[in-house]
Please model this.
Amino acid sequence: MTTPHNTATLNGVRIAYRERGSGPAIVFAHGHPFDQSMWDQQVDALSPDYRAVTLDLRGYGASEVPAVDATATLETMADDIRALLDHLGINRAVVAGLSMGGQVAMAFADQFPERLAGLVLAATFPEADTPEAAAARLVMAERFINEGAVLPGGEMLPRLLAPASVKRDPALAVQVFTMIANAPPTGAAAALRGRARRKDYTAALRQLKVPALIVAPQIEGVWLGFGEIGTVFAGGMVLFAQFAELERPNFLARFTGQRGIRAAQIMFGLSVIPIGLAHIVYSGITASMVPSWLPFRLGLAYLTGVAQIACGVALLFGFVPRVAALAEAAMCALFAFLVWGPDTWFAAVPKFAGSPPGFRFPFTAFLITWIVGCAALLVASASARTGSRSA
Model:
């Protein structure tokens, strides 16, 4: 149920807001380039027990639109929330924010810790923009001014919603795109300029003494972390098996020679299987990272997952281990260039929703993928020289 919005003049600007329910207060700050309606489902769920407050941040939704060359900093938006709490007679509140709204929530926590009862951060990050990321935001601000919200905002849609989510709930995609299309271009540009100037909130977050909830995109990083570390470790096992000179009965001597190579094959196989499972379990996220010019993106997500599991099983049981390791190396090379290639290092909008802008995240992912591929080549090269069956 959508409640008609109210307006209040806060810090000299007309701000649209809604409130529903009674009890402990929760204030929701939306992301860019959305409006307060993105929180309707959360308000429906929480208003029976809480006083749920949403607002259109200055320049967005039904709030006052700034001048073309204006800048709206996170600190200014946070002070608008403080003024709204004063207007509503709320002393302390939990502040929840998504993406840009999460950064506004951090700014509120930094400036008004005595007004904060709790903090919810979803798909956001505290670090300041790199010079490259800040420049990209300023370019995007100019695009909003010159092209309107539909084109630059619409480019974000594949990064905001996975293909599986769109297929499961098309109405959600329509709702998100509608918010984007209706975003006032000058307001979005003002916020982009402000975000380009924001400070690093990492130290401020460490000082908080309130309950906090941090929500990230739906992907199990432990699976991938185990797989990546395990494959690199297997590559190290190959080098140890080939070059270590240990005299028996040293315990580590059993990991040299052909026995060591076989242990590396098993370790690599065990590590690749969870990576493949992650591709399947989180197929929607995997598909969203496949280049848009490729057909059957969801099918490719499943195919790569099954292929990696097959490579892992083959290595685990010593069945054509060289072929399996070479296939994994080839897939890593494709992933590195198609998913984390140089075009993503300088992209104005991060390819992976919720990741920080700038080149560091995609470049690191590119290097990790190549390192895993190199470990696969080490296993393949060693397998060609062992007596493993079918090698």
Observations:
- The radius of gyration is 25 Å.
